[in-house]
Amino acid sequence: FFFFFKQKTAYAIYQCDWSSDVCSSDLFIYKSVRSHSPKYVIDEIESITNTYKLDAINFVDPMFLTDKKRLESLSNGLTEKKLNIKWACSIRADIVNEDILHRMKKAGCFYINYGFESGSQNMLDAMNKKTTVEQNYKAAEMTNNAGILVNSAVIINLPGETEEDFQATVEFLENSNIYRSEEHTSELQSH
């Protein structure tokens, strides 16, 4: 989706506390928390947007939202600086709330990628995701209500997946207003 923007990829935190059995984060990230301060991230964003005239930042941190107070500081700082930069991130479904999503939107967040993975609780449990289908539906609903595009990674055809599990995932994707590039192209350009 970022082909519409002149953009930069950035890390604000190097950590994932919730590794599932299907996640590769254990292979390439640190086990201890290492994060840049919100001020450092804001200053870096200001510097690179001024230098490179960027339209968007894609935070590729495995867990962008691990500390809600930190995210509030980052969102508030971006809003106060009026950098007019759009940004995207990846976060977990079980730690978002309406207040944080609205702060993120106000600070320029237009796109969130969740690792929903499946619409089947059986498969989420088999992957050791530590989330529920209900939490995933709620996160998608709150994110859509905040005016932020929702996307998700899904995993299909894992050992033990039944036709019912697969259909539950299809139903979840259809009912959660998950971003589809062919349907959202004009909406994305307007962000």
- Measured distance between first and last alpha carbons: 12 Å
Number of helices: 8
Write the H/E string, N to C.
EEHEHEHEHEHHEHH
**Dominant shape:** elongated
Largest sheet: 5 strands, parallel
- SSE class: alpha/beta
Helix fraction bin: 40-55%
**Radius of gyration, rounded?**
17 Å
Task: Give the beta-strand count.
Answer: 7
Strand content: 15-25%
- Residue runs with pLDDT of under 50 for 5 or more positions: 1-16, 184-189
Query: Could you report the average pLDDT, rounded to the nearest whole number?
Result: 79
Which sequence of strands runs across the widest sheet?
Answer: 1-4-5-6-7
List keywords for this structure.
disordered N terminus, single chain, 8 helices, five-stranded parallel β-sheet
Condensed summary:
With 191 residues, the chain is α/β, with parallel strands linked by helices. Helix content is 44%, strand content 17%. Strand 4 (56-59), helix 3 and strand 5 form a beta-alpha-beta unit.
Description:
This protein is elongated. The N and C termini lie close together (12 Å). By secondary structure, it is an alpha/beta fold. It is 44% helix and 17% strand.
Helices and strands in order, then pairings?
Elements: E1 7-10, E2 13-14, H1 25-28, E3 34-35, H2 38-52, E4 56-59, H3 68-81, E5 86-91, H4 98-106, E6 109-117, H5 121-126, H6 133-145, E7 149-154, H7 163-175, H8 181-190
Parallel strand pairs: 1-4, 4-5, 5-6, 6-7
Antiparallel strand pairs: 2-3
Helix pairs in contact: 2-3, 3-4
